[in-house]
């Protein structure tokens, strides 16, 4: 048995298999890398159909990242999975307010989820913002409200929470809207998917700009 053990070779072979199994499927420029990265992360080819991109999502994300975007996640897991080396080279940062004491105290006082308060805090940040939501539908719902109120103007919303309650509905809020989005329609998603999408966007930018 000839096993592949080098990390770079494993990834290269994995993407080769993904390309082969996708067959003659084609995707618009910039979307292919995202779809394949998510499939690589999950081994789930349903994402070739489930991922939904707004018309300007890829370029809006790349522009924001190249101008030092702040990425806001709804879990520490998603935050941990995002490549910090690339992000810092672009002048950006990633934040998660879910474990913040002020957020927790405020959520308890108001009787709402920490995800809701986290979005409200994130909306006050300066500079281009990218939201990567992989767990909490309430984060997506509150973020959509803040956008509708004109409080927040994200360069991109990655909406991929996983689960059964309010998940589908929260994602559908963004479909067809004016805010650039990448949405995983249906119940599937997760923090790992959110991180994979952000990394796929970063990798494209690094390749394009030659960092």
TrEMBL record:
Residues 9-203 form the Cobalamin biosynthesis precorrin-8X methylmutase CobH/CbiC domain. One of its GO terms (molecular function) is precorrin-8X methylmutase activity. One of its GO terms (biological process) is cobalamin biosynthetic process. The keyword Isomerase applies. Pathway: Cofactor biosynthesis; adenosylcobalamin biosynthesis. The keyword NAD does not apply. InterPro entries: Cbl_synth_CobH/CbiC, CobH/CbiC_sf. Pfam families: CbiC. Keywords: Cobalamin biosynthesis, Isomerase. SUPFAM superfamilies: Precorrin-8X methylmutase CbiC/CobH. Belongs to the CobH/CbiC family. This is Cobalamin biosynthesis precorrin-8X methylmutase CobH/CbiC domain-containing protein.
């Amino acid at each position: 048995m000839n096993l592949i053990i080098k990390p770079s070779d494993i990834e290269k072979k994995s993407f080769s298999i993904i390309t082969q199994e996708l067959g003659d499927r084609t995707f618009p420029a910039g979307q292919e890398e995202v779809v394949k990265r998510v499939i690589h992360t999950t081994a789930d080819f349903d994402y070739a159909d489930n991922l939904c991109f707004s018309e300007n999502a890829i370029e809006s994300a790349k522009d924001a990242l190249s101008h030092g975007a702040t990425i806001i996640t709804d879990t520490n897991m998603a935050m941990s999975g995002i490549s910090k080396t690339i992000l810092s080279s672009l002048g950006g940062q990633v934040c998660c307010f879910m474990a913040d004491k002020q957020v927790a105290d405020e959520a308890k006082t108001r009787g709402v989820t920490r995800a809701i308060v986290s979005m409200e805090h994130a909306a006050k940040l300066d500079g281009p913002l990218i939201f990567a939501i992989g767990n909490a539908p309430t984060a997506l719902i509150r973020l959509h409200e803040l956008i509708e109120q004109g409080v927040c103007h994200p360069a991109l919303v990655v909406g991929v929470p996983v689960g059964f309650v309010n998940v589908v509905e929260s994602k559908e809020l963004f479909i067809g809207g004016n805010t650039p989005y990448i949405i995983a329609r249906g119940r599937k998603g997760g923090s790992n998917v959110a991180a994979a999408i952000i990394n796929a966007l970063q990798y494209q930018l690094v390749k394009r700009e030659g960092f």
